[in-house]
């Protein structure tokens, strides 16, 4: 006899909650103290959690259960279904996918680009692309950075075939379609949103890029038509170039970053003392060099990992990660475990809303306490920097998401050409002459974080729409306790008890749209011209 839906949900929660907590603890241990033992424990805990998600009998019970008409119960069913569905893969195929992922990951970890006969690391490549003025030297560094693509491309295609086979067995067109469907994203709507972002960013990006190319070509002593991808500051042109006239790092050299972060959140009535106390924020040997926030138990155990070095980058990162942390902290603790979390897109939006403050003149004056005249003088450059960061990133995500869609539609197509078609169309770069190489495969996300990039860009839209709402209601985004109250009540508390798009519509009064993001770009453009 089939169990009732509430019983199925209760049993799933009883199994999954402790496994997820253990996997999170193991992840934290492996990130804060990198040892072989911690790494082995992390892999084992992760596997145990995934195995539970793959439980075919439980999945069938969830899939075949009838809706109860009780919204919170039916919502848990939907969340559990989407969580388990991608794991319903025949054992043999799953093993093939895991093996390919591990082998590609190992190649990315061990591969060293070779420059002038010597293996070098990614930092050397970055340094060359930031500083070298000789085009041949830059080209060599750029080409060396792409050699990992050749090393993994065949396996990435095999992986795409395996992922597609798994998706088709579940009734989906391909892995791209399955990934969106289980992430509450409608493919047609997503593509329409990306088209709208393309339309909103195309002209300002082209105008800036044209001027930048003229200056760039002068720097390298060539006509703009001879600029190639290695003349830009990073191998994928995914970030805005540094503005050497604006030394924001100098503003944060002597700052206590945890104190600055705490003051920012205290200003909106949120005390992060307890969250800071659980966190690991200082750089140290044998620790992950990245930054993240982890909600260990969907309860009070929330931790942030950073590697703070005084300067703008880690100031922004602290504000960003503690945006995730306060969201986790204030999800209604009475909600059932399955929905006592949130969609990646909404938490990314909240984190970005706070991370952006380091470029906000009001925040710089009041919370950071910078001299009024200094901020006033820097305002146009600050706005320009924010504008370029958004534009360059948006154009890059348009390449990634459109590429992934085409890649899963036909992994064997000529993507060496297709990749450059997209790069030329969206990033306005000129492809290298006579190059036939799998440059798409050099981007690790294609293999190991598939169909995820769109979340970052949609997160930007969420941040812009939230910011517009908060500004309209409270006159700014800082130093008003009502802002914290609004976020806690309207955004954080509901957790994942409703879909992300419903949450955004309820909290901001309108469905997610490109309009606030586009309005912000126009405003930044105006302010950068003063
Ligand atoms: Zn984030």
Keywords:
two-stranded antiparallel ribbon; 21 helices; mainly alpha; binds zinc ion; single chain; 530 residues
Strand percentage lies at: under 5%
The main sheet comes to: 2 strands, antiparallel
Number of helices: 21
Distance between the termini: 72 Å
Shape: globular
Helix proportion range: 55-70%
Describe the protein's architecture and organization:
This protein is an all-alpha fold and 530 residues long. It has helices at residues 5-32, 36-53, 56-64, 71-84, 91-110, 122-131, 135-169, 175-181, 187-220, 257-267, 273-277, 312-329, 344-355, 361-366, 372-409, 415-427, 444-448, 454-474, 481-492, 500-508, 515-528, and strands spanning 114-115, 118-119, 292-295, 302-305. The chain has a two-stranded antiparallel ribbon. A hairpin with a 6-residue loop joins strand 3 and strand 4 (302-305). The chain starts with a helix and ends with a helix. Residues 320, 324, 348, 351 line the site of zinc ion (ZN).
Q: Could you give a short description of this structure?
A:
By secondary structure, the chain is mainly alpha-helical.
